[in-house]
Amino acid sequence: MSKKKPDNTATFKKFTKWLWILFLGGFGFIALLFFLGSIGVFGPLPSFEELENPENNLATEVISIDDKTLGKYFNENRTPIKYKDIPENIVKALVATEDVRFYEHSGIDFYGTTRAFVKLGKDGGASTVTQQLAKLLFHGEGSKNLIERLSQKIKEWIIAIRLERQYTKEEIITMYFNKQDFLYNAVGLRSAARIYFGKEPKELKIEEAAVLVAMLKNPSLYNPHRESKKEKTLLRRNVVLKQMEKNGVISLEEKDSLQKLPMVINFSPEDTGYGVATYFREYLRGFLKTWVKDNKKPDGTEYNIYRDGLKIYVTLDSRMQQYAEDAMKEHMSNLQRVFYKQQKKNKNAPYYDLTVKEIERNMESAMKRSNRFRRMKKAGVSEADIKKSFNEKTEMRVFSWKGDIDTIMTPMDSIRYYKYFMRAGLMSMEPQTGHVKAWVGGINYKHFQYDMVKQGKRQVGSTFKPFVYATAINQLQISPCEEFSNTIWTIPKGKYGLDKDWAPANADHKYGGFKTLKNALATSTNVITAQLIDKTTPQNVVKLAKNLGIESDILAVPSIALGTVDLSLFEMTGAYNTFPSKGMYVKPIMILRIEDKNGTVLENFTPETKEVMSEESAYTVVNLLEGVTQYGSGARLRNAARSYPDSIVSGHPYKFKNPIGGKTGTTQNQSDGWFMGFVPNLTTGVWVGGEERSIHFADIGRGQGASMALPIWALYMKKCYADKELEISDGAFIKPANFDVELDCDKYKKQQEEDQNTTEVDPEF
What pLDDT digit, counting tens, does each position of 512-570 carry? Predict the structure, then answer.
């Protein structure tokens, strides 16, 4: 009896039935999940408004006058980029590596999802760029709990579909790149390009773009800055390049040659303690904190400089700022070498003029001002225990001119270690506009945060003398070639409120004969400056100084003629700027305008000006100050033959040949060194000294302003002149029309003698 054949038709029908049941059931299940997710069963979904305006922390950007980003203020260092500014090679690298069907799907790649499900993710996941954006915008890292992760995935799908309906593909890519966190305060593509390569995105090469796209998979695992991750990052970069070749973005030959290139980065961290103009940016932060209180949003709330993406356009020139910082580093590292050498013979190093008890009190005071002391005090630690901890050795990283050093020392020793470092400040501004072009408040913001441009005030020494001379010229209409006796000048007790006679001596203690005003200022002759302030009165000198923009208190006493007053570099540079600006005081201005994140101008800034002296008087003072750099204390700007002790004058010889007005200043015991100098379109002031007046060079040769401060000015100007795009003037100062004052003292003297010989004398007298 034969077996009954199986009914193949019935079996096929049964199989087909179950296949459809599974298919429709699966489809229905997915549809149900989508429905449940859309009504919030798996948690709330973003509203239409949230999709339209996803919350971002946008960094406030400080932009120089030459359109370079100087720095940012941020919680997240995100500076948005527009699609048109994203290079095509980065977009293609992203699509080729992360989502090859990006332009074909509507948020979900069903082919990729099916493949990932069937192969259990062995060939990679299936998250599209849109899904990744959804995750970045609305919940961040996925949960490790399977059920929670499933609900998150469903929400990602729903949000991705909504994003695709709401935005174009270009907008999605732009949002994706703006939201990505590349670590090290690099949030968004633009920040990442600047921090890892020191470039704007449009400047990136293909192999550099590939590194950033490689990081998208896991910025911690594939991070080119981390030494332990460099090999993995290089391999991942090459995978990106392979994907680009596979998808026709680059040729096979290009891929092969690019994969052979080493991975080179230019890590440029962006934080307050890093980058250029660090001191200026900190000053600006303080200004903005006040500005936001006085300039509210339309809804009455305050702008947040860390989140609202403001753009602050400033007057600083990034090139000049860099030249200023480089000049300071070059000279101050050399100056420090000489200072260390001298301190080897100082038993109380780095102090002079103090007793051991005074030094101990000074050190204890410094300890109590330290951040470490304040933190421990706030934590409730007793003062005795705090002091004990300051004498216990600990690991720390300290500053040196060759780079930070890891060492072990007591906190008290570290305080004294930092006392050894000479400090400095530089400010540079444009006479005609008042635009501040460079601002260097110290030698290293990370370790020395006190700003010696605006915060610090020190005795100005002989740099104050031009204000006395300017008062005399403006008030008495005297010629710079007029002669004065080089003899001791005494202002008696009682005059100007003096409690005793005042008769200053010359620094070189040489007297006799006569000197012209021009020669007296060039050689910084004290006795003639004393005569001038007596003839003009201290009150009138103070009045002029105030008109020159000096806001600090100045006592109207004769000794101010020699620079006993404490002023800031900011005040001094603004005041000196009046001379090349033809007698017009232009208040230093640092900000051009402030815009919101959409480019709407919130405020424009314009300089404040006022006429302080006639153009003729200002030009005469300029001529006096030119004499200082020709045959006075600033002549080393021009001479080439001299050598200086310990090669302290960095970069000499300078061999400047163009007209320069300037004045050096040195205070008692060489505690402060100044140089104020200008050319027709740039005024720059420099101060150098110790943290305290008792920290200084032992001798005038090394400690005078011409050795401590002038070299920074000279190095800075050499760099500026070398950059022809800056157009720093090397021409003459413009003489006023109808100017009739004789500035050639030989001609003036000859004319005086001729006038005297031709004068008719009445015979009866």
Answer: 999 999 999 999 999 999 999 999 999 999 999 999 999 999 999 999 999 999 999 99
What does each C-alpha distance from 270 to 77, 171, 193, 492, 694 come to in angstroms?
A: 8, 27, 12, 59, 36
183 Cβ neighbours under 8 A, 6+ residues apart: 219, 220, 223
Nearest to 280 by CA among 554, 634, 591: 591
Q: Which residue has the tokens 């405020």?
A: 603
d(CA 599, CA 730): 38
3-state class (DSSP) for residue 468: helix
Measured from the Cβ of residue 614, the count of other Cβ atoms closer than 10 Å reads 15
204, 206, 212, 214: CA torsion to nearest 10: 180
Q: Which two tokens stand for residue 642?
A: 């001299």
Cβ(646)–Cβ(338) below 8 Å: yes
Burial per residue of 687-705, b for 16 or more beta-carbon CB atoms within 10 angstroms, e otherwise: bbbbbebbbbbeeeebbbb
Residue 82 CB-half CA count within 13 A: 5
Structure tokens at 718: 């050499």
In the chain the first and final C-alpha atoms are separated, in Å, by: 172
pLDDT tens digits, one per residue of 68-82: 999 988 877 778 889
Q: Tokens 């710079």 label which residue?
A: 480
Residue reference for tokens 């590939």: 210
Query: By C-alpha distance, which of 662, 652, 663 is closest to 733?
Result: 662
Q: Where are the beta strands (DSSP E) in 692-750?
A: none
Rounded Cα gap, residues 659 and 627, in angstroms: 10
* Helix 206-215 with 88-98: angle, nearest 10 deg: 40
Q: What one-letter code names the amino acid at 430?
A: E
> pLDDT per residue over 121-170, tens digit each?
444 455 889 888 888 876 555 445 555 555 566 777 778 888 888 889 99
pLDDT of 704: 96
3-state DSSP assignment of residue 502: strand
Q: What is the DSSP string of 336-352?
A: HHHHHHHHTT-TTTT--
Cβ–Cβ under 8 Å, residues 686 and 458: no
Do strands 394-398 and 423-429 pair parallel, antiparallel, or not at all (unpaired)? Answer: unpaired
Nearest partner of 136 among 166, 163, 118, 114, judged by Cα? 163
For residues 695 and 673, is the Cβ–Cβ distance under 8 A? no
| AA identity, residue 304 | N
Residue 134 exposed, middle or buried by CB count within 10 Å (0-12, 13-18, 19+): buried
Q: Return the amino acid letter for 546.
A: K
State whether residue 208 is helix, strand or coil: helix
Cβ(632)–Cβ(522) below 8 Å: yes
Q: Compute the Cα dihedral for 254, 255, 260, 264 and give only its sign.
A: positive
Pull the structure tokens for residue 85.
Answer: 């500014």
- CA 261, CA 635: separation in Å to the nearest integer? 52
Strands 609-611 and 601-604: unpaired
Bridge partners of 467, per DSSP, are: none
Q: Are 483 and 513 in contact (CB under 8 A)?
A: no
- Evaluate whether 632 touches 692 at the Cβ level (below 8 Å): no
Alpha carbon distance 61, 71 (integer Å): 6
CA 468 distance to own-chain centroid: 34
Could you tell me which of 606, 553, 588, 613 has the C-alpha nearest to residue 684?
A: 588
Q: Look up the pTM and report it.
A: 0.80
**Preceding peptide of 466 cis, ω within 30°:** no
Check pLDDT > 60 for residue 88: yes
Ranges assigned E (strand) in 305-347: 311-314
β-pair partners for 425: 687
- In the chain, the largest separation of any two C-alpha atoms, in whole Å, equals 175
Q: What is the SS3 assignment for 761?
A: coil
3-state secondary structure of 437: strand
More confident residue, 474 or 116: 474
Phi, psi of 684 (to 5 degrees): -135, 130
